[in-house]
Amino acid sequence: MRKAILIMAALAAASGPAIAQDATATNLSGAATVEWFVAHCDAKAMNGLYFMWATIVVNGAGQAEMDPYRQHIRDQMAQKFGSNTGAACDALAAGFSKPPTAN
């Protein structure tokens, strides 16, 4: 899981809204990335543990807290992949297909 969270944090760390990059911000950004993946890609390509983890994070956050991260992920995906959603899905699926690890 750490590898996927680092991938998600790298997407969020690029220029964007003033979002602090602490553990909470990394979790919120990661959960927003999982949401984007589920909405735009074949969710069967994702190990279910990521979905369960993202659900816990999203349920623990309010909408006002999640919305900037959701928008930031949308912006990053558009900036990096343009309208090529398939390429974005492929890039994320590589990390999401493996089970998360503690380290």
What does this structure look like?
The protein has 103 residues and is an all-alpha fold. The protein has one domain (2-13, 20-96). The chain is built from five helices and no strands. Helix 1 crosses helix 2 (23-40) and helix 2 crosses helix 4. The longest helix is centred in the last third of the chain and has 19 residues, at 63-81. It is globular and about 30 Å long.
Keywords:
103 residues, mainly alpha, 0% strand, globular
User: Per DSSP, what share of the residues sits in E-state strands of 2 or more residues?
Assistant: under 5%
Q: What is the total domain count?
A: 1
Radius of gyration: 12 Å
Report the mean per-residue pLDDT as an integer: 83
Instruction: Give the number of DSSP strands.
Output: 0
Shape: globular
- Taking pLDDT < 50 over at least 5 consecutive residues as the criterion, the unreliable ranges are none
How many DSSP H or I helices?
A: 5
- Helicity level: over 70%
H/E series: HHHHH
Topology of helices and strands:
Elements: H1 2-13, H2 23-40, H3 48-60, H4 63-81, H5 85-96
Helix pairs in contact: 1-2, 2-3, 2-4
Q: Would you summarize the structure shown here?
A:
With 103 residues, this protein is mainly alpha-helical. Helix content is 72%, strand content 0%. The N and C termini lie close together (7 Å).
